[in-house]
Please model this.
Amino acid sequence: MENMSALAEKAMASGFNLDLVVHDGLVQAKFMVDKIKRAKTFAIREDDIFLCTYPKSGTHWTWEILNMIVAGKAEYTKHWLNSAYLESRTKEELEKLESPRIIHTHLLPSQMPDAIWTNGCKVIYVHRHPKDCLVSFFSQLSKQIWEDNPLQKTAFSGSWADYLDLFLDGYTLAPCGSYFTYRLQMSTISDTYKGFEVCTVRYEDMKADCAREIKRMAEYLGRPLPEQIYRDISEACSFKNLKNACETMKDQTYHYKWQDGSSGYFRKGECGDWKNFFTVAQSERFDKMYEEKMQSPLL
Model:
């Protein structure tokens, strides 16, 4: 705990403009602690569908796809995905959602309600190349200011090198903590929860052939659709089309708004942008830690 407390202090000293505390052995933004505690006791319905992602892994993209699969057509949802954000919405707000609810979360499996696993809810887990996650998260936190931010500062004002150091130390302003901890817990769910079946999807596979991955998710959910619908959903949820829909067509009630000049949630939606940020030495350092933590090379 002392080490984690020191990391919270280091993070604030290195450029995080937030009050940071330690909760459940993880460095957290203070304002998130009560929300994380509340999420653990959330009342589950047997037909709930959970989208689990580490931040910046294609959450908006996949959530919209899942809603279209359930609807059986390529029609955008009324609200932004934050309307169904487990650790952000109140119990009352989530209770109002119609079944089957498609709820997204960045929490660790151990932080989520136990009933998800005992009730056999459907869980889709999307993971992305960790270097791209890191770059995307850094870009968002270091360039954007919430409209109602009393400090009028970005969430992170340190350097790229500072952020990389904190990320490798295990702190990234993600409620689930370390990328490595998250990836390990998600990849061993079937062992931890006695054969629980998760639909695991790679962001890069979605970029390569989205219609194919949409079909795979639909079949996992027991909701197969005509091949043309898969193609229609893929087109509707392309980066350009979904960004436009979210910014110009959707109800903005649950949109966390940034000040003018910020790019919002949708930045590039590309694979491999990490190469524009990492030096060779930084990349090799990251690869080494990944292999140590995950017991396998980063491909």
Notes: The chain has one domain: 2-294. The mean pLDDT is 86. The two ends are 33 Å apart (CA to CA). The CA atoms of residues 202 and 229 lie 21 Å apart.
